[in-house]
Design brief:
- The protein is of the alpha+beta class and about 100 residues long.
- The longest helix has 23 residues.
- A two-stranded antiparallel sheet has the order 1-2.
- The chain contains two helices and two strands, in the order H-E-E-H.
- A hairpin with a 5-residue loop joins strand 1 and strand 2.
- The protein has a single domain, classed as GMP Synthetase, Chain A, domain 3 (2-Layer Sandwich), CATH 3.30.300.100.
- Helix 1 runs antiparallel to helix 2.
């Protein structure tokens, strides 16, 4: 991610950042596959440091056996990209 020149994040801003990324990832997953087809969805967003802030997004998606034709890995990878974009957008608003 590019250096955005943002101020040091407060605890509240860090929490909002993580929640924003998690929400964006979850929305993306459910836009691609019905919630009935999801056996397990774990989304972890961790922010470390302050300047620069490093954000780690991990998504574990397991689909029901009926969804065997759907590529869970690619959906999880797309959702990770969407989460990182949401993070970037949030941080740009803080500038």
């Amino acid at each position: 991610m590019d250096e955005l020149g943002i101020p040091e994040l407060s605890t509240k801003q860090t929490e909002t950042l993580c929640a924003t990324a998690e929400s964006a990832a979850r929305k993306h997953v459910f836009s691609k596959v019905s919630s009935k087809m999801v056996d397990r969805l774990d989304i972890s967003v961790e922010a470390e440091g302050s300047k620069p802030v490093n954000v780690i997004v991990e998504i574990n998606l397991q689909l029901a056996s009926e969804a065997k034709d759907i590529d869970a890995e690619s959906i999880a990878a797309e959702a990770t990209k969407v989460a990182h974009k949401a993070i970037e957008n949030y941080l740009r608003k803080l500038k």
